[in-house]
Hints:
It is a single chain. The protein has 143 residues and is an all-alpha fold. Strands 1-2 form a two-stranded antiparallel ribbon. The protein is built from seven helices and two strands. Helix 1 (9-18) packs across helix 2 (25-35) and helix 4 crosses helix 7. The chain is 54% helix and 3% strand.
Amino acid sequence: xxxxxxxxxxxxxxxxxxxxxxxxxxxxxxxxxxxxxxxxxxxxxxxxxxxxxxxxxxxxxxxxxxxxxxxxxxxxxxxxxxxxxxxxxxxxxxxxxxxxxxxxxxxxxxxxxxxxxxxxxxxxxxxxxxxxxxxxxxxxxxx
Length: 143
């Protein structure tokens, strides 16, 4: 991106194409207009995540979610590390404090190894579109 912290039509089209979606510029404009809260013609990072999560889960494809995982895992370690997450947020112009990024990793990291595995990433991406109460860990109260 151009580092503005928002995503415009051109940037969204490039991101969608990278994720394997074929979309016309008019469709991109409509997608932005549908979720652009302030009428600026651009969307911010959280709007982008919400929109893409919906698109990916509506396709109901593990393969599509794994394409997104690979965009984060640029060093091909097989996991999303703090450095990977920091890079993506920086590229998108988001100024998220390191402690919040670490918190995001901790929330997704079920194995407790400090990184997000493909399985953990898939689970988080699928949960974003499901009932939020499904994510409550009820292993401790089997009553």
